[in-house]
Write a structure and sequence with these properties.
Blueprint (H helix, E strand, L loop, with lengths): L3 H14 L3 H12 L4 H9 L4 H40 L18 H15 L3 E3 L4 E3 H4 L24 E3 L5 H9 L4 E10 L10 E11 L4 H15 L6 E8 L2 E10 L16 E10 L1 H6 L8 E8 H8 L13 H4 L3
Parallel strand pairs: 1-4
Antiparallel strand pairs: 2-3, 4-5, 5-9, 6-7, 7-8, 8-9
Helix pairs in contact: 1-4, 2-4, 3-4, 5-10
Bound molecules: phenylalanine.
Phenylalanine binds next to strand 8 and strand 9.
């Protein structure tokens, strides 16, 4: 009735076949639980006569102790085994090198654009902008460059339609701003411009900074003062500056501004073609015809305008001899700035 021996044998067999921690819990319930195999044997004891109860009771209790000890032992062994397996399978190699994400940096052109803006802003100039896809009217006509004017040949224009082009300079922003506001005004405009041209010193897209100042008594000496102050800050305070007569349809008189050659200190070299000077920008007093186009009275107002190529200034500032380097995205070049 109380076959302790065979129960013990079944238990030990079952215990032997247990390989997972979860199964141990089931085994515990099966034997020691409220309705467990051993528990039910213990219950039967009470129905026996006292002598039998005593001796049988001892063996049942011994078996109970054995089952508890064996289960606890197996549980801790399996627990340890599973913990070790998990440590191995979840191992992280903390000696592996991390993923390297290189930091980007500002493009030299953007850096110089910001520097130029800073200098003019400290001189009280605002910052304006205009569209890169521009009307022929703003890019040429309103700047006193009529349709058949030979001055259009100075700039190789990308046409989108007969009236819509990619702006060839930032000067159209002068017109757009003057149409909106009345003098006095002073601002710069920066941005991309486009000309169908490509060689060691030309790219089809490049950057310009335009400047315009209009008031009742602006003279050529204001233009000189502002541009000299600018050049002495963007290059060095010792940089020689020279104004040379030139022509632009939208300024009169017009000038080209040169700085002393930074490669030979003005002695004359291959870069400055022996002249000792390098041209860096165009400028002049606003042509009264332009004022008329925007409805300003040229008898009351005078002003100056200037325009410079940012690639050219950057090349001179950092002694770069090929403009195409700016747009080849060679990190060895870009990382130097
Ligand atoms: N827009 C002229 C150019 O590209 C430069 C300029 C601007 C000249 C303003 C005079 C006044 O080439």
């Amino acid at each position: 009735m109380l076959d302790i021996t065979s129960l013990k044998k079944t238990f030990l067999d079952e215990l032997n076949s247990v390989t997972k921690l979860a199964e141990i819990q089931q085994l515990r319930v099966k034997y020691l639980g409220k309705k467990g195999l051993l528990t039910s044997k213990l219950k039967l004891l009470s129905a026996l006569p006292p002598e039998e109860r005593r001796s049988l009771g001892r063996s049942v209790n011994e078996l109970k102790d054995l089952i508890e000890t064996e289960i606890d032992l197996k549980e801790s062994l399996l627990g340890e085994k599973e913990r070790k397996e998990r440590l191995v399978s979840e191992a992280i190699d903390i000696t592996l090198t991390g993923k390297y994400t290189p930091f980007g940096r500002e493009h030299p052109i953007n850096k110089v654009l910001a520097e130029i803006a800073d200098i003019f802003v400290t001189m009280g100039f605002g910052v304006e902008e205009g569209p890169e896809v521009e009307l022929d009217y703003y890019n040429f006509e309103a700047l006193n460059i009529p349709k058949d004017h030979p001055a259009r040949d100075m700039q190789d224009t990308f046409y989108i339609t007969e009236d819509v082009i990619l702006r060839t300079h930032t000067s159209p922003v002068q017109i757009r701003v003057m149409e909106k506001v009345k003098p006095p005004l002073r601002f710069i405009a920066q941005g991309k411009v486009y000309r169908c041209d490509a060689d060691i010193s030309h790219t089809p897209m490049f950057h310009q900074v335009e400047g315009l100042m209009v008031d009742t008594d602006i003279s050529f000496s204001d233009l000189k003062g502002v541009l000299e102050a600018f050049i002495h800050r963007i290059f060095t305070p010792e940089t020689p500056v020279r104004f040379r007569p030139s022509f632009f349809p939208f300024t009169e008189p017009s000038a080209e501004v040169d700085i002393g050659c930074i490669f030979c200190d003005g002695r004359g070299c291959r870069v400055c073609k022996g002249s000792g000077w390098l041209e860096i920008l165009g400028a002049g007093m606003v042509n009264p015809r332009v004022f008329e186009m925007v409805g300003y009275d040229p008898e009351i107002y005078t002003g100056f305008a200037f325009g410079m190529g940012v690639e050219r200034i950057t090349m001179l500032k950092y002694s770069i001899d090929d403009i195409r380097l700016f747009y080849e995205n060679d990190l060895r070049f870009l990382r130097q700035f």
